Amino acid sequence: MKGRLGKYLLSGLMIAVLAGCQSKPTDRGQQYKDGRLDNPLELVNEPNAKGKPVNAKDYIDQIMKVQSASSSLYNRNSDTFLSVEQWIRSGGDTRTLSQYGLSAYQMEGMDNFGNVQFTGYYTPVLQARYTQQGEFRYPLYRMPQKGKRRLPDRAGIYSGALDSSLVIAYTNSLMDNFMMEVQGSGYVDYGDGRPLMFFGYAGKNGHAYRSIGKVLIDRGEVARENMSMQAIRQWADAHSESEVRELLEQNPSFVFFKPEMYAPVKGASAVPLVAKASVASDRSLIPSGTTLLAEVPELDNGGKFTGKYHLRLMVALDVGGAIKGQHFDMYQGIGQEAGHAAGYYNHYGRVWVLKTRQSGGPLFTAYTSQKAPTLMTSPPGTYQNASGAVLVNNQE
Description:
alpha+beta
């Protein structure tokens, strides 16, 4: 989303056994039907995937938003967009891609067996008031003017170190405020009947980030394998306000926001995002505007892999400081239901980059045909996602 290079976002457990493991785990949707792949993007005659895309309409809607918001981005990719649309209207059979001038490049995945990592992010909606009243006593702040002195850390801000003139809303949940920081933006409902106000990312206080998910694991409060956004919220619901505040203060970094009237949720490409039809990617491997055909694992309501997959068309329209290499952060949409899905996603699926022949192969910049040294930047048991926040097992 806009400003995502500086924002925080929930992230998931990097399954260390994926790399060079003989047991070949399958609990998070991993597959091994295509054999070993030795290139980041490998040209294949046709994807080894059954079925047709389940979100053809959403993909076309997303392309229309690209065309409206960024003519230059649309024009750079128009050949592919138009060919994919023709392919969709003909039935979307993966065996017929070449008939529409489309080449499919399969991604090698995190383990060289095509298992690409999927995480999720969303746009929260917070209840708030303009002034402090009753349960609405937790402030959200606009970005202070930068001076010579360093801005206070989270504990200092919670203790009132910032001027009250910087407050742009009072919410009824300190944890909700924190989760909106994690996502980097959100909508605020002031409860007065007016349209929701979009709170975009405005900056950070400059202090180092520390994962509260890792803190809970290190303290033995939540098992590593059970860590998720839902697990953190459950922990918070079972503890006092002072205990929740103490936990959040373990992360000294703090995010500021800017209110924007009638603003849609946009990615780093300045294009409004369509849920489950857009992703954040590593632009050195997957440039903005790239069309992806993805076999995404289906999760149940408890976040467990069902054994089924959905074939989806998505466009790379966002970025993230920690989305590196064979990893995508899927935009899940707005509100509680989207947040529920985003909080659980840390799974693996197969992905093919679709491009027309006349546009040539995928354009690499910093990423080469050899393994990028930044592909796995976090220690085993952790990983960073689109915001650059180091989280554990799908959580902050």
